[in-house]
Design goal:
Number of strands: 8
Shape: globular
Largest sheet: 8 strands, mixed
Strand content: 5-15%
Number of helices: 12
Helix content: 40-55%
Order of helices and strands: HHEHEHEHHEHEHEHHEEHH
Distance between the termini: 26 Å
């Protein structure tokens, strides 16, 4: 079994350079550095306005050693589709076209474009760098922001639940949907490797705990990412062809209260609110287990095919 220390080793010169503009302690560049290490230099990235756009920087001074195109916030999937078709017309079928977008440009503003690309099964690899809010513009809430989280636009706490975008993308019947976390790096890199080998629309959500927006300690992002998985707030799983589910971290080892206690955005919660969140996460976990159980015949059929 691959260990975290082995997974943390890069196989080549980093494709994301040091000296970028990320906040100190941010795990977004760390996540991107490792996913690019798997994908390799024959990759083109579409990066809409977001934290990642600031980290990447403007051309010709980009911190990335691969070509980057920065479209409008709503147009990432369309821009990636156009790049893919242009490369195919040139015979460059092996060049990976990826999107590195935040949750605002994915769950919300860019969703119409993303859904259309998924319906067409465009041959792109889309990464949603999910920090659960519009962190680049003042930490306002997005539809990825969890229930009760305090944000710049929900100072008393968000009154609605987080959108389940993985399920929505799976409903399009695309080849591959997954969640991943820098707190489980070997799993993250395995999923990127798997997605790289596939064709068609592939969609991976990476949880990116935001130090400022979440109110974390300066060195607390990786711990928060691990706690999110361990309490079930951000389960690690894969969905293939829209209906075959695989759960990658099968045990919950801590209550949601441990995860909430790390974050200033939940300091206003009452004990009753915490119990409500625990019940919501329990319900989501039970639903995911039912999906996995229903997939077992499909797994068996694949194994004997």
């Amino acid at each position: 079994m691959q260990t975290i220390s082995a997974a943390s080793q890069l196989s080549q010169e980093p494709l994301l350079c040091s000296g970028h503009a990320a906040c100190p302690g941010c795990v977004e560049p760390l996540s991107v550095r490792h996913l690019l290490d798997v994908l390799g230099p024959d990759t083109m990235a579409v990066i809409p306005p977001s934290c990642m756009a600031i980290i990447a920087g403007p051309q010709p001074f980009s911190s990335l050693r691969i070509p980057v195109y920065q479209p409008t916030l709503e147009a990432s999937a369309a821009a990636a589709s156009g790049l893919r078709r242009a490369l195919d017309a040139q015979g460059k079928h092996d060049t990976q076209v990826i999107v590195l977008a935040g949750d605002g440009g994915t769950y919300d503003i860019g969703f119409q474009c993303l859904s259309s690309a998924a319906e067409r099964n465009e041959n792109i690899l889309y990464f949603c760098l999910d920090n659960e809010g519009y962190m680049n513009t003042g930490a306002q809430k997005s539809s990825s922001t969890p229930h009760f989280a305090r944000t710049g636009s929900t100072p008393a706490g968000k009154t609605t639940r987080k959108k389940n975008l993985s399920e929505i993308m799976a409903a399009h019947g695309v080849p591959y949907v997954a969640t991943a976390s820098i707190g489980h790096l070997a799993d993250l890199k395995r999923k990127v490797e798997k997605a790289k080998a596939l064709r068609g629309m592939r969609f991976i959500t990476l949880l990116i705990p935001c130090l400022d927006g979440w109110g974390l300690a300066d060195d607390g992002a990786v711990t928060a990412a691990r706690y999110a998985v361990e309490c079930g707030a951000f389960p690690l799983y894969e969905i293939e062809e829209g209906h075959v589910y695989t759960l990658n971290h099968e045990r919950r080892t801590r209550p949601v209260a441990d995860y909430l206690a790390l974050q200033r955005r939940y300091r206003h919660l009452s004990a009753a609110d915490t119990l409500t969140l625990q019940a919501e996460i329990d319900d989501g976990w039970a639903r995911l287990l039912r999906r996995v159980a229903a997939s077992l015949p499909a797994h068996g059929a694949a194994a004997t095919a």
